[in-house]
Amino acid sequence: MIKVGRNDPCPCGSGKKYKQCCLKTEATQQVGDRIEAVPKVVQWLTASRGQAVREALDDGFFGGLDADEYQALMGMDPDVLEGIMINAMEWLLADGSIAVKGQERRVLELILARGGPLLSAGQREWIELLASKPIRLYEVAEVIPGESMRLQDILLPGRAPVLVQEKTGSRQAVRFDLIAGRIVPVDSHFELSGAVYAFPRHRSDGLIGELRRELEEADTDSSLAKEVTGCIIPRHWLKLFVTPSKMPQFADSITGDPILLITDHYRVKDWRTLEQALSGEADVAGNHRDGWERLFEGGDGLERSSAAINPGKRQDRLSVFYCTQPYADIGRPWFEGIAGRSVAFVSREITDPKGALSKRRTGDAPAPPAPPQLPPKVMTELVGKRNRLSPPLHSKHLESSIEKATI
After folding, report:
1. pLDDT by residue (tens digit) across 246-296?
2. CB 3.0-4.6 Å disulfide test: which of 87, 202, 237, 370 passes with 197?
3. Coil, helix or strand for 269?
4. CB-based contact 164:151 (threshold 8 Å)
5. CA–centroid distance for 302 within its chain
6. What is the pLDDT of residues 67-113, one digit of tens each?
7. How many angstroms separate the CA atoms of 188 and 128, rounded?
8. 259-268 and 317-324: which strand pairing?
9. What are the C-alpha distances in Å from 288 to residues 137, 205, 291?
10. Rounded CA gap, 73 and 243, in Å?
């Protein structure tokens, strides 16, 4: 079979280039295949082995919760519960096993075996790819809102960050956020598979510590490592929803200095001179549109920011943000020294994060992922009674919310 180049005439005879004709249709079909693959497989699983699926989720994905924690989780807002089920079902397809005639079999094997769901070649490839990739913990190293994120593996700081195309998540993420998920290759780029686990930084120490201990002697890319991360990360993530948050210790992870939110406001008299000055600094990255950061390398080998320089809403305004007093003490004379007469200091704003946080309502479970594209009946069937101590979830309220989310 002769491979058609993007700029070659389209084989259909339209007279257009391949990239402007049938390649677009093929790409659209591939995206549709990926979107439909997981819901189709989930529907088949619940229809053919519903009880075994529920037991596998209870013992595996939700197995780290005790009865009271599970009851609290299942009593949460339906929107939150729907987001949890997205991650649960992807975990089942990629990492789960169910009992078949008294023997444990990987869910993937059942899906791809004879008698499994009717899938297109593209859908089979997507399910296989999904199941081959591990859940890993990443730090957001760079964000282009609405377009992409660059993710750095927390446990492998020496490995180059991966650029993933992500429209929705990149609008919410900020630099240094912690998220876990599966990175999968799609055509010539990378994407997140769909299930995402968000972790507040001040509640991530236990997770990172356990991952490092359990993976200390394991090959990073081995099946053992995949099994370990697929067990530990979901368990810690679910605990976020049911375990009260303790007041975090507000200290900079690199210097140990107390966190203090300090913002210096300036009036800009000459943008051109200021931009030239910033571009001449080797440790400064950024631009007028997105702002600048003064970077340094921390003891963990990852880049950190000591100052964030952000254009204001007014055309002649700019702010410089520091997260500790020492950063501000060093940063202000540095910034004003290179900016010179191009700016004029206006005011300084200081906020104690501990005081600000104490005024917020308790509970900081991460926002759920986007609503699942699963049939309402399937969702209602999956979220059943876990045991006699758990509340029933076949309620009209839950079923109604699922129907609205999947319309």
Report:
1. 655 677 777 888 888 899 999 999 999 999 999 999 999 999 998 999 999
2. 237
3. coil
4. yes
5. 19
6. 999 999 988 888 888 889 989 999 999 999 988 888 889 999 999 98
7. 18
8. antiparallel
9. 31, 35, 5
10. 10
